[in-house]
Automatic annotation (TrEMBL):
InterPro entries: Bact_Secretion_Sys_Channel, NolW-like_sf. PANTHER family: PROBABLE GENERAL SECRETION PATHWAY PROTEIN D, SECRETIN GSPD-RELATED. Gene3D superfamilies: 3.30.1370.120. This is Type II and III secretion system protein. It comes from the Bacteria. The keyword Hydrolase does not apply. One of its GO terms (cellular component) is membrane. Its main location: membrane. Keywords: Membrane, Signal. GO terms for biological process: protein secretion. It is found in: Membrane.
Amino acid sequence: MKYATQPNPKGRFLKPLVHFLVIVLLLVGWPNPAPGSGNPDQAALGGAPGITDSISVAGLGGEAITLDVRQADLRDVLSALAIKMGVSMVLVDEAAGPVTFEAQGITLAQAFELILQTQGLSYLREGNVIVIADPDTLHNDFFKQMILTRFNLLFVTADKVKPLIEELGIPLSSISVDTNPQVLWAQGTPQALHKLRELLQAVDRAENELSLQYRTLTTTQVSPVRLADLLGQAGLDVSQSVVLGNQLLIFDRTLHNRWGQVEDLARALDTLDARERTVFVYQLKNISAADAASRLAAFGFEDVATQTFNYPEISQEILVICPPHLQNQVRGALAGLDGTRQRIRVPVASTTGAHAHEAANARRHLLSELSGVPIGSFHISRNLSGDADNPHYVLWVEESPEKIKQIEALNKKIE
């Protein structure tokens, strides 16, 4: 299947051109795909015994990158990624929201998949063309382009694995059992096939040859990945496990034999104190740190704390402490709060006396220099007293409400 470069009837063709003014993309030694290197769409699953002919995005990523995107249009983000991947992308759904995403030390392929996950999107790849849409659209309109993959099993049989896949709700379009009991065929998006691969890695072991029993740990305070890490630190090997939503599915029978102890330990570890924390400083452009802190609190983010620095009514930096999985949401909320508001006109100072006009003009220049608001936004009224010997002038400013509030705070410092 080939795609033309004109707009797709159900979406928009993303040419490798981008407005880099809205995206900060720092790449460390990214190599473009070498010509003649074979089909990058398919690669063996390294480290997954018995599973072959599966699909990875090895052709899309390799070395570590740093990516910082804030309130950028998804189309611009994907265009920037397309340039470095050496591919073309078709975005079927143009209703996706703005992207706020920051990561360090990950591959370009990982960044691509994580960004799509934050938007609830999936993708299919045909050669150097990637089609991006929500999973239902891919299932309904691009079914023929979904990847049909063969999985070779060593110990468990396909007829035992299939009911487990259906029970766990892995979103595959079709699952079929080959005449060979050790072969399973599945069709779906790369993300669904990746989750199936994780499941088969956990269950295709000699001890599961007769049964595929599993036990479930459900978390409420920490992520299942964090719980698995903490259990490992406590000496429990949970490598035979799969993460689905907020559940950790454990297939290791040795742990099943002492499941009461495992559950007790999991409950003790699933606490607020066990959460990891991310600390970052957010640079504001329009509102003060004090306003940002109070307005962010109204979002009701769980376990998110903020700290302001000196002069919070004037400063525009806020320190945020939050769980890692909430960082992008918090950044997105702050970016939304820090938007440009409609300009209004408000008086900020008044002067009287023989040199009132000169005093108002001097204050006008000083407030402009301190606030960064252009001098042209400040205005001096006519003489309001009507008395030339005892004039009265008002200094007023036309700006956003947030900027005016900062100017008023500065004016109080002057007085």
